[in-house]
């Protein structure tokens, strides 16, 4: 049998075999993480299962149109003491991406790992990891079909949101015929593509614009104009009265500049902690660069978190990026 098919069957069995689940995605969740986690929740509800769906922190309110958004438990505000025997993790490349959720696993817990990151380290007891999938939501669609789940508008909306956001609105190179086929199917259940795109891709907060205005002043070309980078400091956040999620998407301004091969954003989320996002055109596999710095991701979109000042983080990234790019820093 096709090994992929067998893994999908095993995942579907996992949903059926257990009764109470912990459902989680990654820290600073995006549309795929949130859509997939809530998609899992809707599947569990259909199967008559119990669940708790958590994230280490807050989920961006831009996703509050998703069904069961109010069930997402922010563990920083509402800690849990319960330990779980069955866990479903979505869109997490490794356990460190879960943040402070790992302590809720009972010892010997059964863990289903559904993910599409090539850097996934197979932390589950059941691993359904497909790097060729555009989004974790794409894989979840297959599991739902296999498990005989009835699709409806709510489930379709969750899966569609994951597909839409991880393909950048069906524009990135991970947009395959299969993605379009699934998306088309999901529309037949009543998903309104204009409304989802408006919420996920078009609408921005005023705080985002204020952060963007400051960040663009730091935009710099380096490495023979092959790298563009942008920085946001904790002071920028304070002055723009912005939240961490308001700094999302800045890295695209870097990568989109004509001739640039790698765009990098350095976002100081708290003093001494810098979240690095990388986006590549063709020449560099940025997942390998991020991995060397303790992070991960995809060939064209990756990230890591580096300790130190923004200047120190920059130096660490350049040290790994330069050999990958074959060009030295020339500022
Ligand atoms: P971001 O730059 O945060 O939008 O992330 C780009 C891609 O890299 C996404 O697929 C993330 O899931 C992945 N990613 C970001 N940060 C990390 C990390 N620290 N470890 C593993 N994967 C990451
Ligand atoms: Mn994600
Ligand atoms: Mn994803």
From TrEMBL:
Q: Which GO terms describe its molecular function?
A: nucleic acid binding
List the source organism.
Brevibacillus agri
In terms of SUPFAM superfamilies, this protein maps to: DHH phosphoesterases (SSF64182)
Q: Which Pfam families match?
A: DHH (PF01368), DHHA1 (PF02272)
Give the range the annotation lists for the signal sequence: none
**Where does the source fall among the domains of life?**
Bacteria
Quote the Gene3D superfamilies the UniProt record gives.
Answer: 3.10.310.30, inorganic pyrophosphatase (n-terminal core)
**Residue ranges occupied by any DHHA1 domain in the UniProt entry:** 234-320
The residues covered by the DDH domain are 21-162
User: What is the protein's name according to its record?
Assistant: Bifunctional oligoribonuclease/PAP phosphatase NrnA
InterPro entries in the record, alphabetically? DDH_dom, DHH_sf, DHHA1_dom, Oligoribo/pAp-PDE_c-di-AMP_PDE
